[in-house]
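G., before I forget:
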Amino acid sequence: MASGSVANQEGKVMLLGFWCSPFVKRVEWALKFKGVEYDYVEEDLTNKSTLLLTSNPIHKKVPVLIHNGNPIVESLVIIEYIDETWKQNPILPQDPYERAMARFWANFIEQKVTEPARDALLSQGEQQEKKVKEIKEAMEVVEGEAKAKLNDKTIFFGGENGVGYVDIVLGWTCNWMETVEEVGGFKVLDPESQPQFHKWMANFREVPFIKPTLGPKEKLVEYFRMVRQACLGLVANK
Amino acid sequence: MAGSEVKVLGTWASPFALRVHIALGIKSVKYEWVEENLEAKSQLLLESNPINKQVPVLIHHHKPICESLAILQYIDEAWPSAPSILPSDPHHRAVARFWAAYIDHKLFTWLKGVASAEGAEGKKVALDQVREGLVVVEAAFWKCSKGRDFFSGAGIGYLDIVLGCFLGWLYVAEKRNDVKLLDEEKMPGLAAWAIKFCQHGAVKDVMPDKDELLDYANMVFQAMPKLNGQCPS
């Protein structure tokens, strides 16, 4: 593939991704929300391309967005880049205080929900229990915020603009959280104690540009089960 | 924004609160500093940051903003006149945000790991990890600065502030472990940058004295060995 010439073409957008990565999905949602056309390249994570390794030499991970030949990495950094580069359909709010709130919540979700969920997926016993407890506590906070901000008219955290930054950052939970629970053997989702959050998940899944991107859960479960077994096997063999 | 009430809730030893000091200084914004006692947090702090109950908090127009990186970007956007904290070009902003995430999630985590490491071997591994991280950031410095004094060019900006706030705690780790981390030979760019950063007008009057920080760290780690190197932030 003439990736070099494609990547360097003025205005061309390329996304290096992996089919089941929620971090890649977030970036796709941001691009679709803005109506930005892009070339998608599916990476083989067991045999990473030269383009991936040279674009993200520090972390060697997807997603990588390549625009005007410049690589941008880390999903939250990429989303802000997309928002600042293509002005239509703003993802972050316009007001500086509201933007700071959105960034605060994005950071909270990453530190207290996303990363512990990944850690819980790849651990067991006491270590996993600790992470599950962290996620449950964080979900109480998220439910509180959903109760405060959402209602029948305002169904997304982006407010009157519809889907926004916080929705995109939290959005992985609407499909992947159940997968992580099933594979990891724990429960953090509870419709009874998290009614607003469950309403938000249901609404997010139905968004026209989101719905087609949510693949069948069985495939996700199969893949993440393999990842968990490989990781725990590595730990056992140390 | 003239006459707007601006308050910062922080502690003198917190590197994250120092970021806010410096950023407001760059913008020449007048503010009231409230020194918090983390053993007895004020009602204002608990109400302003009910989720994390941490410093720093910036209060502007009676609205609290939390998380130092969110605060830095807020300061840049609420006081948009020059000098800018973040670059204007979206790609350069993305590079700055990437390295800020690396410094906070990797380098700072490794620096904390030095204090919680056990045994001589454990300490050595932790210190080597910090050095490796600094070597990576050294390369980033040359790419970002393009031969100028700071990550942001001629003046200090986002990355300078994000990394520079840890210089005092790097010094603490060096003295407590009798090692060199910011090594002039291995990291000449960062070593020279560190001196210029500490001398900058927006930094020199607000940066805590490093020996006072060392005394404080010695006292804290002695009194609470299980604190595990948590910087009060």
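Chain B touches chain A at residues 51-52, 60-61, 63, 65-67, 69-71, 73-74, 77-78, 90-91, 93-94, 97-98, 101-102, 136 (CB under 8 Å). Chain B has nine helices and four strands.

More on Monday.
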